[in-house]
Amino acid sequence: MNKNFVEPADRYLVSDGVKLHYAEWGDPTRETLILVHGNRDHCRSWDFFVAALGARGSLPFHVVALDLRGHGDSEWHSPDRQYQHEDFLLDLSCLIRHLGKETFSLAGHSLGGAMAVLYSGCFPERIRRLVLVEALGPYARSDQDVPRLLAQWLGENGSASERFYPDMEEAAKAIQKRFPTIPDGAALYMARYGMKRTENGWIWKYDPRVRFPSFSTFSEAQIQAFIHRIECPTLLVYGEAGEFMKSPRAYRVSLFKNMQVMGIADAGHHVPHEKPNELAGVVYPFLRARSPNG
Question: Which of 98, 175, 179, 267 could cross-link 239 (Cys pair, CB 3.0–4.6 Å)?
């Protein structure tokens, strides 16, 4: 971590009866950049990226990183509900109203990027610039998908088992087993802020139910409609060592009106964790560039 890194302020708000946590850096009178994490992650995973932005001088943005419900230090919602895209969108919308900013830039990784696409499609006039990290919108659900996904949820009685770890180091190793390109320090950092200690050992703070795929029924045509409404300059960043650009969603790049695409060498899916300096190196000039209309 950059020695000049400034710890964020912890802030809270309530969305749909759920208490949400977010981290805040910088001067609120400056242009705001909102960061949205991926599934089973948390807002403090952006710390290395924020530090890399700050390494270019004083932090040039007001930066806010949200813990979506069921993640990090935000509350879980009621046990009789599954987590849907609409829930996360409501959290993002509540945060934006809470901040009171009419326009802002929005960046999201993976699930967070999918939510950024949907939000930007709802309110295109509010987004100054959009950064998508390994994301081009959510997975589309066909009519045939929905019964299977709902059956999975009902078959597990709406619950998922928790795994306990003897220490954070073991949890970090488990992350790297699934995502081997995440460095040791980043994996341990994810565990440090993403875990809590119980009498049975260390567990992740996220609600185990977020492992269930959402059965929100956005079709491919509907997702395309969201994308077609996005007007702002958009930057897609992907890891060149991963498979993202080979996925069925990669073709959506051509649907964005004003899209730049940047690959990060030797990075997999978790670009903000693996290559935060390189990510900041492409995001910083994109956010600072003048719009074509001035």
Answer: 267
